[in-house]
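INFO  loader      accepted 1 record
INFO  loader      residues=219
INFO  predictor   begin
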Amino acid sequence: MTRLLRYLVPLMLLIGGCQPLPKLGLEDALAPADSRPVIVYTPAALTSEWLLILDQQLKLTPEQASEGIRTSEPPVNDTQRFKQLLFRQQLQQRGGWVVARDRLRELLENYRGHEVEPLLSMLLAHNQALINRDQREQRLNQQLSDLIEAYETVIRRYDESIAETEQLNAKIEALTNLERQLNIRRSKDATNGPAATASQPVASPSQPPKELPTRKDAP
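INFO  predictor   done
INFO  writer      dumping tokens
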């Protein structure tokens, strides 16, 4: 959009039949608001002046725009207000665009039906579009952040589920081994128990015990 504005500035000068004023340099764009004399412009001259200011301001980096805001004096006329709102626009961040948009609305109220109105309307639409784009980007970034968080939650729960499953399998395996050992022990007891009992002699109750022979003493 900013690149489009750079092409529209000379085109509007040509269509409007404005006589361009001497081109302002970068130092002029950054100069304090009260460093130049206040001039009363005709409608065509005012539009030409503002277009030239716009052409220079669009070349400013955010750092240069910030410096321009810092060194500017309070504006005393609409041309200076126009220049300062363009500093805000060139900050390339939402807060600056909002300020520029609001000040453009104020200027539009003062220039309804003026030749400069189309320029102000175009810049107002430009800053509003930048604000809308920033809102969309923030919304998309938030949605992306939510998706990433949800994905990480699913992965974390999956890992926890895997760990719980491994712990459960370990417990089942331990119980299975214990049951196997108990079955082996029972099997051994069942096999060895009757044989050990049969090997031990048991006295029959129907047969009286044998009496030992008594020794007879000699007469």
